[in-house]
Specification:
384 residues; alpha/beta; five-stranded antiparallel β-sheet; 12 helices; 15 strands; globular; binds iron/sulfur cluster
């Protein structure tokens, strides 16, 4: 096994190259995942860090909401960012969308470094990178018909004139399988089902003609019966239109279904990454193993993961709180309990408080990413 910290440079070639690096409590670190392709990243984070000042007894310290994250999104690829509520996934998505300013690190679009403080960068970025939010009920203005909701990004970002507006809106609606589009164009959001509303929200994102979609738990508030339809739509947009996508989820089983690569986030750090099959079938980091155990996947169990069966029963109280992305009921999965281990003053692995394999060194230093084979890596002293 080769420690990626010794890599001569950050990975920029392999598809789905992702990693965690440049933590303030560790040496320069880099992680890599990939499926072997070499297309250049369209959206990239390099050493991205966001520290949030704390109050009360932690006054004067900051929490590491995002710490030294390296990510690369590539056209025609879905990268899944998996972690429980409070792990920093949404903060990372906001940084990537230039909705927040990083404490350190860079965001690059097509290789060019962006500045979240520059209005021009932000305006261009909003057309290149669109977000799909978790709640389709809140993300569409219920006072307007779809015609108006979809016309705004078409006019603002695409300069589409009145003469062709209806045709373009119908085309967008049919692209997300709201067909026939002319029957939906005059509907209000409240006249749509949850799945139709999320399709309309995706159509609005597509209206800006983006290269990148950031989906923040895009199916977790939907009825279980229609989640698969929306996930299939996302994979269709990847495969047919070549969009780059970040699929943010707490559900590692759904990540396996849609993603080319998966990275797992815990307390602001990416702790494991690699091709989706490798991460879900052969998880190396204790936290990923715990996530998998709490999210039994029939295909994984049929593949012979008997350990996963036992662990799943151990963690069977890890219920998903109504699909809102909030995990409740399991102390072992309660990220909030790690607050003390995740301040800027704290050293070591933030997972150590509940890790069954913790060693003395885990309290002293966060391990560098270690290659465990075929583009799969993990940040854990167990792989030393
Ligand atoms: S580094 Fe140590 S505490 Fe962290 S996951 Fe690995 S063994 Fe557990």
């Amino acid at each position: 096994m080769t420690g990626l910290a010794s890599s001569p440079s950050r990975p920029t070639g392999a598809a789905g190259t992702t990693g965690a690096g440049m933590t303030s409590d560790t040496e320069d670190t880099t992680g890599t995942t990939g499926t072997g392709e070499t297309s250049a990243p369209v959206l990239e984070a390099v050493g991205l860090t966001r520290h949030i000042p704390m109050h009360g007894r932690h006054r004067g310290q900051s929490v590491r909401a995002v710490e030294g994250v390296d990510l690369a999104l590539r056209r025609g690829q879905i990268l899944a960012l998996v972690g429980q509520s409070g792990s920093g996934k949404t903060t990372l998505a906001r940084l990537l969308a230039l909705g927040d300013r990083p404490t350190a690190g860079e965001i690059r679009f097509d290789g060019r470094q962006l500045d979240a403080a520059r209005g021009r960068d932000r305006k261009q970025h909003f057309s290149h990178v669109q977000m799909i939010m978790q709640d389709p009920f809140a993300s569409l203005n219920r006072l307007h018909r779809l015609r108006y909701i979809l016309s705004r990004p078409l006019r603002n970002f695409g300069g589409v004139g009145s003469a062709e507006l209806d045709a373009r809106i119908i085309e967008l609606l049919e692209r997300v399988h709201l067909t026939p589009g002319r029957e939906f164009i005059d509907k209000y959001p409240h006249e749509l089902s949850g799945g139709q509303r999320q399709r309309a929200a995706i159509a609005r994102a597509l209206a800006a003609d983006p290269s990148v979609l950031l989906g923040d738990e895009p199916v977790s508030m939907l009825d279980v019966s229609i989640r698969l339809d929306i996930l299939n739509l996302l994979t269709e947009l990847r495969d047919r239109d070549g969009l780059a996508m970040l699929y943010i989820t707490h559900d590692i089983a759904s990540a396996r279904h849609v993603a080319n690569d998966i990275v797992v986030m815990y307390s602001g750090r990416i702790v494991e990454g690699g091709p989706a099959e490798a991460v879900t079938q052969n998880a190396q980091h204790p936290y990923t193993q715990l996530l998998l155990a709490a999210s039994p996947d029939p295909e994984r169990l049929l593949a012979g993961d008997t350990d996963g069966t036992d662990d799943a029963s151990d963690a069977s109280d890890a219920d998903n709180n109504g699909g809102t992305g909030t995990t409740t009921g399991t102390d072992r999965l309660d990220a909030a309990r790690d607050a003390d281990a995740n301040t800027t003053d704290a050293a070591g692995c933030p997972f150590r408080a509940r890790c069954p394999h913790a060693q003395p060194i885990c309290a002293e230093q966060m391990p560098d990413p270690i290659d465990v084979g075929s583009g799969h890596w993990s940040r854990c002293w167990l792989h030393r």
